[in-house]
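Fold sample X.
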Amino acid sequence: MNPSRTLRLGCLAGLLVAGGCSDMVSMNRQYREQGLEQYNKGEYVKSASTLQYAIRQEPGDYTSHYYLGKSYEHMHQPQQAIEQYRTCLTVMNNSLEGSTDREFRLKVLDALARDIATEPYRAADLNLLERQPKTAENHFLLAKVYRYSQDPDDALENYNRAALADPTDFAIAKEYGLYLEELGQTKRADAELRRAYAMNTKDEQVAAGLRRIGVIPGPSLKDENDLVKPVVPVGPLPEVEIGGTTPTHGPQQPAPGGSTGTSSVRD
């Protein structure tokens, strides 16, 4: 075959493939936008069906996996929701955009923990989590599950392990400190909230938590030498009483464009 003709055919094939990929991405976004709109209207059966189409067009669309899980959650199908949240986390690990979308990942982790905690038969899911590698994120997830299950001892143990595994993770330090403050463990809360504040002085919840325990946020807190490492409790954890309800997170919006969609959606 003539080399120039071969080259032309190769270029044409490449354009067709590229065009096909572009069409698939376009279809994925159309289905995703429609599914998110249905989700916002409370049409969860319709949103689940539409988001399934979006995922078929683009399996790496982690936003659609998350809101498909939320749709299942509202349809009282917790196991299907848990499966979608887990898939969402896996997809994010393998995505350039997803691997850096920390805010969205925290939202997925929280949804997964809440569904496991509220599932009547959660022993199998807990056992699966306990067998996972002892990473900061896995301990963080376990801490959330135990917290929402009203098991403060196991929650605090896993928050502390998460903080030790990654002392630089602001989200872990913040949530650990606020939970200690909620339980009335002021001394330990003081250390964790100071550590979180040293990492992010602009977080209003951390600053409010410090004020509630009698610490005035300010530049001097960042100079403390003991803010680098989390506090390791000595001896058994003190008994605590749980009062009130677990704080809930406000609605968030997926980031515009890319895998995270463009619609404003509620959780």
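Fold sample Y, listed below.
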Amino acid sequence: MSYCFIEIAKNGPAEVLKVQEAEFNDSLRPDEILIDVKYSGINFADILMRLGLYRDAPKKPFIPGYELSGIVKAIGANVKSHQVGDEVMAGTKFGGYVNRIKLPEWQVLKLPQGFNLMDGAALPVSFITAYIAFNEFGRIRKEDKVLIDCATGGLGVIFLQMCQQVGAQAIGLTSSPSKKDLIQSFGAVAYTHNEFEPANEENFDFILNSSGGKSLKDHYNRLAKSGKLCGIGLQSAVNQGRGSTFSQLKAALSSPWYPILKLVMQSKSVSGFNALKYFDDEAWMQKHLPNMEQTKVKPYVGAVFKAEEVGRAHKALEMKQAKGKVILAW
């Protein structure tokens, strides 16, 4: 049996990504599930990996990808939670750009009610990131004032829905005026990044920052007392689809430092996390993954590309051309 996959063999522009084919061993361990993958989710971390800016990436060549959806083809002898034919989704620690995969039972979840397979490939990373930021770092409550600087991406759409459900006052930022309607559809106030800079918006209880760099200073200054700034990325290191070690270093050096005494005197807090690290924590994932099956939020799939069009898909994400999640179809 053969399978198709997309690997990063060398760093460079989106055109370096190609679909390849190799033999596939379909024998299963007792706790494994074989999935015929229908869709693979694309994340900004994949862009950074391709450009050589992601420190945790495996040694090349490797297959990127952190999420997928598909149909159960076979199950190991000890698998109890799934049956052949089930429509499922899964989070993966690399290896998600494939049309066939074997995964341990605990990583595989049935699609939530009302979800299709496209939704399933768009949910895992965005949901886990939003869940951690919202519940564990933000602890957001009714009437909290919240800023999301990546509001029209896959993560931002999930986070806006979470704010809407608890009655928080959300403000979302986007790169393009044409995307503001998506933010407003979730009852939030929308600004472009350029509009927000001079806007008199402050006293935020929580700010989710994915840009890093100098934007952190501005966002910190807009926090209320007891306000929390949470960094989850360094997207400012990539501009118009281009990035380099120099651009990453520049973005990192422009990020402010927050001495503990300053935080104490101003009664603010700064934190950050890498949601992909949680994929390594089997105990945490087993505890919290059921929340994904029962979720009342739904991803927004903005663009679907054939696997052979993976270069175009990466460009759509890195050039900020798409709303919501970008996924690959196998």
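Sample Y note: The chain has two domains: 2-123+299-329, 127-274.
Also: The domain at 2-123+299-329 is CATH 3.90.180.10 (Quinone Oxidoreductase; Chain A, domain 1).
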